Structures are given as structure tokens and as C-alpha cells.
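Why CUB_2 domain-containing protein? Reviewers of the renewal asked for a concrete example.
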Amino acid sequence: MIDNCRSALLFKMQIFSILFCVILLGTNSHLDITDIPFLLESPNFPNPYMGKIPNLCGDVMDHPRIKKVLRTNFSAIINMQSFKSSDDLYHSGISAIVQPYNLKNPSFFTCNSTIDLAHRSPFFLVSQNYPYTPTDFSLCTIYFTAPETIRFAFYDFISNAAVDSFVISGETLMNGVQNISYSGKHVTDDEPFALYFKKSASVSFIFSSHNTFYTRGFYIIVNSYSQSKQTSESCINNGIYDLSKTKNLHIGSVMFGTSAYAPNMNCFYKFYNTQKNHLIAFELEFESEKCCDIMEVNGVAASPFDDQNYQGFMGSHFNFAMNDMVTMKFLSDGILGGPGFRGVVYDFNSLHHWLSEINYYFWSHSDKFYIQQQILEKKTLHLNDYNFMMDISVRLFQTNETYEFVVNARKGRYISIFFFTRIDTIVDIDIYNGSTTASPKINIEPIISNIIEDGPSLLLRSYGESIVIRIRAISDQSKERTDFQAMVTDWSDPKCIKICSNTESVYPKFIYGNYITISYPDITGTSVTFEWNRALNITIYNSQQLSSLKKTSQE
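Here is what the prediction returned.
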């Protein structure tokens, strides 16, 4: 992909659909598509590139709520232009297929047929009428054959568990012949996943005509590939390390940023540090094939959240482990590569107070009430000299629950609310300028009318020392679990109206974009920097510690 590229495709046909492998880009072309699907790929896909990217790039396959097919019933020009500044991160590129379909029966394949993946890989196993609910309610079976191995990558799957049926059958790689069924609305809610079979498999499904308030269907990519022995040859510094002897260790996939990582990789790292008052920390930049090439990390968080997995695109970030041993394992299959990963693992001596951490999730009280079959969860936050920035994010909204935050500022201060996600179509929100809901409401029209995902965080301010924030999920079953993120603070500086990432910071490059930085002199005249991120902690440095951190990052 080239910076500032502008690409347009005119498809001279009545009806066409775009099925995404990753995302879409092409060159200026006029195409007459009849029966043969047309492949669109960015140059050198999936080898990584660094540069300007379109606004939606990276979202199509990374987020389960975004549908993976675009359909139109007329000729169209597809036009995408890079307009954002470079994010200095590597990306895989773009791959998509354009194919015609019948408007009377919008199907992407013929039922009761056999697909030879030796000649048709990847194959898009997409439910009839996707991304909408199927209108064909007959039983459908499709058979797959391959010279060696078949992979089914599930990216989107929603059904009615009571009346719909989906079964995939075949000989798995590890457990013999299996009949595997899936149902419900949350099969791919968190992450996509993959199933592997030997040489042949069949899929049978049927959708009921029963009406639902949510869209049903599935989007599965089927590939054939040759299975090979996994190897660690393409892993940098694969092995076990005592960080008391190895202070800074570089890890990653070979040729990161230049070539796609190798197939069948098996990288394993174990880091331990038993020194008193020492922490394990690591920075990591990562992008792999979403669904199937996964980095498993153990030991970063406290149990039971100590097992994490990374897949797809993940912006560079920095972690402090809560355990004295951290393991990382990266596995890739033999189908599609990407930039891979790179990072540095550090030994931090916390005795020198390089880092202090404030967990600001301390509520003065938290109550639940049941009012007319509606759940009201009430939390009270008190801002003070140590906890003056707090998160009011709630990541698992339920449609019948209201979340109420009562925020109290320090004496003589006002409260600022910074919004990091859209409000419209996500949540209903009311903000009261006082300590109760009997207080006057604050006008939130500027927030509701905002439809821009990127850019500076939007701001509302109170007129007194207290506010009440009430949040409810939009009552739509297809959005039963939504996301909302905002920060409240009573800190203010007339010289800094907007809170934003500080690109002039002395922090290492990998921190940019993940932290919100505020710098100001404390009562002793020492420069203090507060950083707020979405990982629920505040990190505090003074000027001496910043110098140490800067020196460490340069080393």
C-alpha cells in the first residue's frame, strides 16, 4: 500500500457483493464481473507496510460486531483514500473478493454441493442473505474436500439457540471424527476461532422462520493447506530467561516490519524474576491473522485473569506483570501471515520508586436497586489529591440495567468529563449538575451529535462540585453488550484545555496513543506527570524518575 493512495473500482453489473478477508483496496479499474469472483489485494499482501491508513482499516475482521460483507443492487464506484497521518505501526494490508449474486435469492454458494478446496481456497461459507437474517429456511448441506488439511475460521456467528441448527462434521486433527454444533448469540462475541479437519468435512445447517429482534447468520472462511512441523527458527531469542541476569531482552518474529512471519511458528518464552522489589515489564507490538495465529501470555494480571491471548491487530503497549514469572507462546498455522510481533522485556527495580501505581477503583459505596424490573447500580466517587482521575467505563452493559455515578470533586473545583467513545446509538446518557437526579440537567447535545470515532476527546464540565451521570444501554437486543468509556477529573489547567496524547513526551515510542498525559509542577516545584490509560491505573513519575525511565528506554 502506498501513502496517500486513492483507489476506485467501477463494477459494471447490476448486483455485486464484497467479501472481506481483511479489508478492501484496489487500483483505478473498470471491471465487468460476470461469474468469476474477482480478487482485490494491496501490493505484497500480507507483507507489512507502514503508512497512512483509511479510517475503517483494520476494523472489519478485528471486531465481531462489524459485518464482513457489503452488498449493493446497482453499479457502484468503490473509493477509498488514505487521509490519516501515519500511526507508525505495521499493518498486513488488504484482501477482498468481489462476486455477483442473485437478488431474488442472495446466496453465496449452492447447497448440497461439494467444494474442492484444492482449486477454491479460500472459500467463503456465508449464510444466505448475509449480513441480514436468512430468508431461506430449508436444510442446507455442503461438503468440502482437500488434499491434506481444512480450516474453518469462524468470524461471525449468531443464531437462535432454540430453533436454529448448525453442525460441522469430520475427522479432526487431534480427536478423531467429531460432530460439532454451535448455537446462540455469543459464539464469536469475544474472539473468532478456528476448527481443523483432515481432508474432508461437511456442514449442515437450517434457520427457522421464527422472528427475532437481532440479525442471524454466519460468516466463515474455509481454507486448505499443507500441515508442516512447527518450528522456532523464526523466533528471536526463543527460550527461558532469568531477568536478574538479563536486564533487557528483545523478542519477536524474524523480519518484523519487512516480511510476513513464517508459517507453523512455535515461539515460547519464559521470564522469571525472584529478586525482591523487582518487577517484570514488557513492551509489545503485535499483528497476526485474526482467529488463528495467537500469542498466549500468562502471568501479567492477577488470577483468575492471568491468562490473556493476543490476536489480530494490537497497538503497541506497555505492561507491568503482577507475578514473578511470565510466559509467552506464539503459534501460527500454515495459511496466512502478517507483520508478527516484536517487543522488549525489562527488569524494573521498584525499590528505587521508578513506578508507583494508584488503583483508583475505590468506591465509597456501591449499591444495587430493583425499580420496576429495572436494575439501578449506583456508585459514588470522591476525587481527592491522590485519586483525581477516575474511569466510569462499564464494559458489560445489560439492556435492563441503569448505571448511576455520583461524582464529588475537591472543594472549590469543577468536574470535567472526557468521552472516548461515541454516545449516539451506543448508550442513553443523562448528566445532572448536582448531587442528585433532581438537579438541573447539563446539555449533552454536542456529545450526542458527534459521530466521529477519532480525534480529540470530547469534553463536558459541571458548574459545581458534584455531578450525577446515568448511563443505559440502547434497548436493542443486537447490542446487548456494548462498550462505553469516559474519564472524570477535577484537575484543570487554563494552559491545557484539551487532554490528549503528548507526542513531545520523553516516554518510549510504544506508549504513544495508549496514554493520556498531564504534566504539571507539584507543591515542591518538582515536575510531575500523570498518565491515565484505559487499563484502569494511573502511573506517577517525578522528573528524576522520568530521567531514569528515559535512559532505560534508550538503552
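The mean pLDDT is 71. This is the kind of structural detail the renewal will allow us to pursue systematically.
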